[in-house]
Fold:
Amino acid sequence: MEKKYLYEFGDFSLCTDENILRRNGQHVSLTPKMFDLLLTLVRNHGKIVEKDFLLRTVWPDSFVENCNITFNVRQLRKVLGDDAQQPSYIETVPRRGYRFIAVVEEILAKPATGTTALGVPHYPSSKSGRLTFMRPSIWLFPVIALFICTVVAGLWLVRSKGLEGAPVFSVPYESRKLSTDGQVLHAAISPDGKAVVYSRRNGGNQSLWVRQLDTSNNIQIVPSSEFFYYGLTVSPDSGTVYFVRGEKPRQGSAPIDIFRISIFGGVPQKIAGGTEGWISISPDGEKISYVRCPRKEEEYCSLWIADSLDGKNERRLVSRPRPIRIGGNKISSDGRTIAFAVGQSATGSNEFGLVEVDIESGAERELTSEKFFNIKNIAWLPDKTGLFLTARKLPDKNYRIIKVSALTGETTKLTTDSESYSGLSLNTEGTILLSSQVQADFHLSIYSTDDVSASPRVLTNASGAAFAQNGKIFFSSMMTGDHEIWSVNPDGSEQRQITNNPADDVSPIVSTDNNSVFFASNRTGELQVWRMDQDGGGLKQVTSKEGGFPIAVSPNGRWLYYTSGLRTTLRRVRIDDGQEEQMLNEVRPKFAVSPDCQWAAFSEKTNEGNVLAIISLDAAHSKKSFRIAEPFADLTRLAWSKDGKYIAYVLFDERSGDNTLWFQTIDKKRPNKIVNLGNDEFAELGGLSLSPDGKTFAVVRGNWNHNTVLFENLK
Structure:
């Protein structure tokens, strides 16, 4: 006859056949490991349970530390409403373990005649159908111990086949692409799994749509406009869409705000302003978490929470100083904590981590000791046993979908294909996962300054380029699957690969004597500047302290000027002995250095708009400024001509989305407009270089293609 066991203590009942804890009949959420831990303590109530025994029983065949027990006991006490100082349920026995001190009763739904299922004589208690734990005969201890071990081992084996122990993608699943044209930038699955909300790019404009998965019907809920979408999510009841929108495409200055709208459309309501794109809604739908990055020294980025209805009751939970960023964040399935990505990628090393903060107390804990180059998005598993990340870990070139155990911190790579993943969302049941695949589509093009109306010559796939003094072009590209340095003639001939390393080799420049190529590489585990011959020989690391991206080489070949990857300040290093010096303390995204290395140019904000500033690099630091053609446009690219007579810069107009190239002659006040370059994006690691004779210039531009993919029937 089937028997169901309940262990009752206080207001709680622990059901072993359903693995459920109830309080006054109401289900209480527990992770699988918390349940196993509580069950072990209850079954051994009144006895000291050693920590070693708990490790062997609850975490068999897993390497974990005592801190895992401490953490889970603390979580159990919160669930039980217990006080560690004056416990009613779990007592800490210093240096030994724990003891369950509450009175425990066993209930048999269908009791057997004469004995319990443990083989213990049945002594009726004062309550009908209840048994109190009685001391068995001495010979029964081995039998009981063997039975308990068997049950616990069985529970572990069952759970190890679920989300806690095995990769979610280890069982058959279905995947399908919901878009193939590269224009779906952000997407989120509704918690009920019936719809996908997504933003779509159409030329220079974007719009917001809903796709019904059962019918494949697509409905536009926010019409096309010049605004750019930075993130979105759906409320737990699948009735409201939250999205982040602002000026397009953002260049680091335009504010972006959070809005809410019915999934059926309507007028968007603003919730909060001045945020980044990462947002999350609590499981009860009442709170929203988001990130702000004022980019100050003491507060570079911070994590906030507020009322999801109107943005009131704002509260800052976490902040980090420069240069630490806070990115993807997700409120847990029990609504008590927020997991968030935090770190920096400027040094080209794995320094991004995953941290959890308690919403009430503000206490933080590291969810995993694993570090990544970057973490883009986060999704909690429904039972809070783990999380999904889209993250990149060097030297891997792709962002993978990665599972992290919330209890042990162990990581499992779920995707190993050639795709790079970004967006991430799960339905409530955890059976549908939505992600986005991202591909770079940037190309090196050559323009003629004599005939700017002529179409440019497109040479090859690239991410950054620079002219050598002899006219050859050196560029970085991922054509081989790794970021490598290549060379090519301006007519496209004699294309040649120079470096061959799994690391990222980017941003090449060439010395004035054509003998040395300098580039940025993280082949040592962090970003540093390296030197090599034009054929790849003579490889040497130049910087060793604060590395970055090379800008110029002094005419005598002794000094290399570069932008710090960590601080974005101007520095230089003596090439022969590696002596590094800070040249300017100004923090600027772009610098250009004159050919004689006597002057540096950068963009500067004033009350009258942006200006082009030029400052001497000697001790006097004399300075002069030029009004740029459009004072409130963003100056995004800088290059000094090889003869030192003028500076080329690119302006981005947020209103039109166009990029225009201008030449500012040093001895004149007004710049000359050269050409409209259109609205394609410039490559992040470079994008503008002038030929030695000034007759041509190279640009690296293109777009990021985003397509949405759906993983279904996950287990």
User: Anything to note?
Assistant: The first strand starts at residue 5 and ends at 9.
